[in-house]
Design goal:
With 168 residues, this protein is of the alpha+beta class. The protein contains 4 helices and 10 strands; from the N terminus they run E-H-H-H-H-E-E-E-E-E-E-E-E-E. The protein has one domain: Alpha-Beta Complex (Ribosomal Protein L22, Chain A), CATH 3.90.470.20.
């Protein structure tokens, strides 16, 4: 399974005042809040954690059918963070999701998967091919293989990403 989220940094600065009272307490766990407080770049870390939660939630929603606002139930751990990418994991109840985020000056793009090996099978796909099931979840139908392929769509500001796992 796959989920993704993209954050347009310029757009987030226009739309959200992450420095307002109560923002971090409402969205982030105590451990995540400590990381935000102790970093030299809280803005990037906030949107990184947000993006990780959103990408993982898309998988959780597809797995369970549950649509609920639960950001503090999605617990992020950053395993590695460089200047241009980050590797992490998100735990939501008993579910573990792996994340990889590409970081640029303009955006953050996070992909979440349920198996580490799936990262090597991630492909960007054409949004024009997407259909939606009865629950509104996006997929592509491959007629040659007679298979439905789950996809994840994310857009924010100037950016849009549509990703899937390569059909094998």
């Amino acid at each position: 399974m796959i989920g993704n989220d993209v954050v347009d940094i310029s757009q987030s600065r226009l739309e959200s005042n992450w420095q307002r009272s109560g923002f971090t307490q409402k969205i982030f766990t105590d451990d995540e809040q400590r990381c935000i407080t102790n970093t030299n770049d809280p803005e990037t870390l906030i949107w990184l954690l947000w993006s990780m939660k959103e990408a993982a939630y898309k998988i959780y929603n597809r797995q369970t059918g549950i649509r609920k606002y639960i950001p503090k139930k999605l617990e992020c751990t950053i395993l590695f963070k460089g200047n241009t990418y980050c590797i992490g994991q998100v735990i939501c109840f008993d579910n573990l999701y792996y994340t990889k985020t590409v970081i640029t000056n303009d955006s953050l793009h996070t992909i979440a998967v349920t198996k580490l090996s799936d990262f090597s099978n991630v492909v960007e796909t054409d949004k024009k091919l997407i259909l939606k099931n009865e629950f509104g979840l996006p997929y592509i139908f491959d007629g040659s293989k007679n298979k439905h392929q789950e996809v994840s769509v994310s857009n924010h500001g100037r950016f849009e990403k549509t990703v899937a796992l390569r059909m094998i």
